[in-house]
Amino acid sequence: MLSCSENDRSHEIIKISDNLVDSIDVSCILGEVEYIAPTAVELEHADKIIADDEGIYILDYRTIHRFGHDWDYSGSFNVETSQDNYWGVTDFDVHNGKVYVLDHKTMLHIYNFNGECIRSAELGFYAATIKALPDGNILVSDAYQADSENKFHLFNGVELQEMTAFSPIKKQEKTWRHFMG
């Protein structure tokens, strides 16, 4: 994982071709490089890593670990999914003190950082990804591959009721209608 201390956007773009080298010395690009890793807990693997203003969150199969930005361990909890049995975690997101979790079945769960389940809802479809939006709503993409199916579902972040669903627009199908409210 790389971390930058400054938000300098005046950098030069470096193109890397497939036949250039097998590895790159990151210090030649970034200057000083320091590799850090969590030491308070042994991770089997990191399925997803999220860093926000509050800290760093790592999904390790069905456990979500929380760290400070200096890798100070803040705790973890196991995600208990699909009320009748465990199916695994498909995706998760973190926003405003809540952890949003999709399980491998068809459930959406919201946890606090203490690992207490605040709310769960049956989605009615197999979900692939989740994003908690700044307005409090939740965007979920489904795992269906058929073109006729909806790809994205927007849920109210409080009642977890679906508000709308839509498919992405293909570039060749764009018209002025797609940009009208």
Textual characterization of the structure:
With 181 residues, the protein is an all-beta fold. Helices cover 2% and strands 36% of the residues. The chain is built from one helix and twelve strands, in the order αββββββββββββ. The strands form three sheets. It has a four-stranded antiparallel β-sheet with strand order 1-2-3-4, with no helix packed on it. A four-stranded antiparallel β-sheet has the order 5-6-7-8, with no helix packed on it. The chain is globular, with a radius of gyration of 20 Å.
Low-confidence stretches: 1-5, 175-181
- Average pLDDT level: 75
Give the helix/strand class: mainly beta
Q: Give me the side-by-side strand order of the main sheet.
A: 1-2-3-4
- What percentage of the residues does DSSP assign to strands (E)? 35-45%
Radius of gyration, in Å, reads: 20 Å
Number of strand elements: 12
Estimate the global geometry from the Cα principal axes: globular
The H/E string reads: HEEEEEEEEEEEE
Q: Helicity level, as a percent range?
A: under 10%
Number of helices: 1
Q: Sheet with the most strands?
A: 4 strands, antiparallel
Cα separation of the termini: 40 Å
Main traits of this protein?
181 residues, 4-stranded antiparallel beta sheet, 1 helix, globular
Give the SSE map.
Blueprint: H1 27-30, E1 48-51, E2 56-60, E3 63-67, E4 73-78, E5 89-95, E6 98-103, E7 107-112, E8 117-122, E9 127-132, E10 138-142, E11 152-155, E12 162-166
Antiparallel strand pairs: 1-2, 2-3, 3-4, 5-6, 6-7, 7-8, 9-10, 10-11, 11-12
